[in-house]
Amino acid sequence: MSQRNLTLLTDLYELTMMQGYFKEKDANETVIFDAFYRSNPSGNGYAISAGLEQVIEYIKDLSFSEDDVDYLRTTGLFEEDFLEYLRKFKFSGDIYAIPEGTVIFPREPIIKVIAPIMEAQLVETALLTIINHQSLIATKTARVVYAAAGDGVMEFGLRRAQGPDAGIYGARAAMIAGCVGTSNVLAGKMFGVPIKGTHAHSWIMSFPDELTAFRHYAKLYPTSCILLVDTYDTLKSGVPNAIKVFQEMREKGIALTNYGIRLDSGDLAYLSKKAKRMLDEAGFTDAVISASNDLDETLINSLKIQGATINSWGVGTNLITSKDCPSFGGVYKLAAVLDKKTGQFTPKIKLSENAEKITNPGNKEIKRIYNRETGKIIADLICLTGETLKESDSLLLFDPIETWKKTYLAPNTYTIRDLLVQVFKGGECVYDSPAVMDIREYCKKELSTLWEESRRLVNPHQVHVDLSKALWEMKNQLLDSYHYNNP
Amino acid sequence: MSQRNLTLLTDLYELTMMQGYFKEKDANETVIFDAFYRSNPSGNGYAISAGLEQVIEYIKDLSFSEDDVDYLRTTGLFEEDFLEYLRKFKFSGDIYAIPEGTVIFPREPIIKVIAPIMEAQLVETALLTIINHQSLIATKTARVVYAAAGDGVMEFGLRRAQGPDAGIYGARAAMIAGCVGTSNVLAGKMFGVPIKGTHAHSWIMSFPDELTAFRHYAKLYPTSCILLVDTYDTLKSGVPNAIKVFQEMREKGIALTNYGIRLDSGDLAYLSKKAKRMLDEAGFTDAVISASNDLDETLINSLKIQGATINSWGVGTNLITSKDCPSFGGVYKLAAVLDKKTGQFTPKIKLSENAEKITNPGNKEIKRIYNRETGKIIADLICLTGETLKESDSLLLFDPIETWKKTYLAPNTYTIRDLLVQVFKGGECVYDSPAVMDIREYCKKELSTLWEESRRLVNPHQVHVDLSKALWEMKNQLLDSYHYNNP
């Protein structure tokens, strides 16, 4: 991504609003924007944050080239003094974010931008594009990996991804959330993640017959010999020919370590069981049986229940596009404006007929509350910045809508963790993104902080995201005062 | 895209197969691969081809850098002689393709690659990624534009796109298929397409009140003054304040040309009708009423039926992700292998239990048959290369499965057009991609060659894609001979 400058990757209205702020306001006042999302994709009980490294690269690279400025001039919308401002544009603000691979929940700020309004406004679109995409694919992957119940899941979706980036950064997100490898070679190079793959039907078809094709493949890749068995007839031709080749390898004294078959069509439950029996009878009891045909978490789950003997899953289209829910729905909303006179942030709220679309005002932090004994998440608490909680105090949590729903936590029975970490300070990046495989390890631990009831695929328990008393009161005062002012 | 080299944007198995061909075959034999798709997305009656320009750029740029080769070496899968081959790799084949913006149908080759097998194999993944993505979004857009029935549709989806490319090239595809503009500034710059937009809720919220925010916006953008009216209360606050501002503009003698309101939440049918009445009563009968809240073709259609007075549509998430069907399903299959001795292509077929997954063998062309009088498409006929049809002859079309379904065309009642054009010859590009706005014009004409019954959104008439008698016979001989050889 750093090879391309994405400064113009923005909605036009960000630029017209920027010029508006430039022309019509006395000051480029400091504001706070929160990026958050409203509901988990695919009916899941949580999401996985991903994309922060690319957001950081984007912010670092922000600058309008002469070419960009010339282009903007041609639109006829912008005046020279504003274009001159763009020429010198540099991001100068602070950014806080939840680290990649973290389990996240609706309505909590994933990224908080504190910056002059013109800068904070510009970054909205690209920031959302990146976070929405990668968090979506990471969350979908977590579902698929959960369904595979310990079997390896490979990301095989590049050809069905929504363009090159969707393939590249989708593979990145899939690795973060637990895939064991990707077929995407460029993603392997860029992110240092394992790449996987075998051969296609065209390999088989380019030889006079299937057996010859298998033999050539086995000769060349004896230590990674997964043969695709469905080109002509899986049980009558593919599996018997594969067994013949494995027998020949055994006779030649070749150690059979990573070998087996791939099923890519037909009734995977039936075929895998039949193939397993044939392989077992020939003495190949540890052969890999991999499958790869329009799989998703529901199908994998169903195949497991049917006793399919598949132990390796190649998941393509449905993962790389998050087919049942192909967008994440992250938004970016104004939360506060700095009052220069007082030096305090004035909280801002967006109203809506729809209660869940009303924003949380003010400068906020997120405190994650864990059960001290189990390490599992009890709830997330959105607080105002500066509020302090002590683990040695008791803590009363309450539902922000149905406020009579309360949870009392006794002192020293819980631990608290601040989720937002600073990534930019005065325009300078103060955060090192971990390697993708390290984020993957961290994500695995994160998933273990969820109760099993929040991980299940259907009707998961929804983790509570509560507001601190101070934030709840501020929000309700703002709501009341608006209605008072607008009878 | 040309700023990045995408040579490694491929599935690993393309490279392992390439090495296989390199090591295990006597020759880098010339083959034919067809890229085609099996069913129209979203239950549509056709698709729109898009992405060819980016495929051409990708093919032109193909070359492995030292860095790429070094990375491949680290995988331990490749031998030095093969890596040396990659270092010198250059595409040397021929490519034929259906021009962008063309109406296309299932099972016909959109792109035909004739090249040494190693080269033809390498390009599979990226070619499919690009074509699948852009054709998907173009097809979805054609549906949305159809539902809007002459109103302008703007592409507003960047923030929900699956990564930067999905936003950029999705906007390109949306413009090809009939959007009047995009919010995506980078797409505007790259493709010379109109960019559109107004302001967000944050603009309103950053001012002390809505009226002040509107006044400032109107002052700055008097000739493009679409005011977002739902930040606080659409009918009690937003629309009255907008009318006040339009009145002030009128009083100042400002010509009101492109002005109006944008609805972004609530009941769009109800609100648009109420708003229209309020605007009309104040004398603003030509105000634009635009809407933009999770719209798609079904919702637009429903709003039209309900008499909503919206005349401009901003469509985001559902268009840029093709939400109901987020993948196109294009595949790339071996169709023939050149026999060096005879100089003839030996046709290849992929069998499947599933009749529609059986491929069409051989070196093929597509002839589109139009009704000479109406200019509407009668059918597409997939022929073997070299077959000649004369418009002065009669033509008998028949269904390739239910062969008793026949259509007889009398001489001189139809016209024939070859759909595939050559884009690469011996590795050199021989095709100039038209400008996106020119493809858009062409696409509009293409859509007019469809009968209305094939354009409707639900249960459209499926246009026939037939096989020539010669191709049909070759295919059935291959099918028979396979079963004969494998009793």
**Mind telling me the C-alpha Rg of chain A?**
27 Å
What is the subunit organization of this protein? homodimer
Number of helical regions of chain A: 17
Q: Give the overall pLDDT of chain A as a whole number.
A: 95
Question: What is the fourth-level CATH superfamily of the largest domain in chain A?
Answer: nicotinate phosphoribosyltransferase
**Low-pLDDT regions of chain A:** none
First-to-last CA distance of chain A: 51 Å
CATH architectural type of the largest domain in chain A: Alpha-Beta Barrel
Number of strands of chain A: 21
Total tally of structural domains of chain A: 2
In one word, what is the shape of chain A? Answer: globular
CATH class of the largest domain in chain A: Alpha Beta
**Greatest interface:** A-B, 107 and 107 residues
- What is the spatial order of strands in the main beta sheet of chain A? 13-12-1-5-3-19-20
Which class of secondary structure composition applies to the elements of chain A?
alpha/beta
Per DSSP, what share of the residues of chain A sits in E-state strands of 2 or more residues? Answer: 15-25%
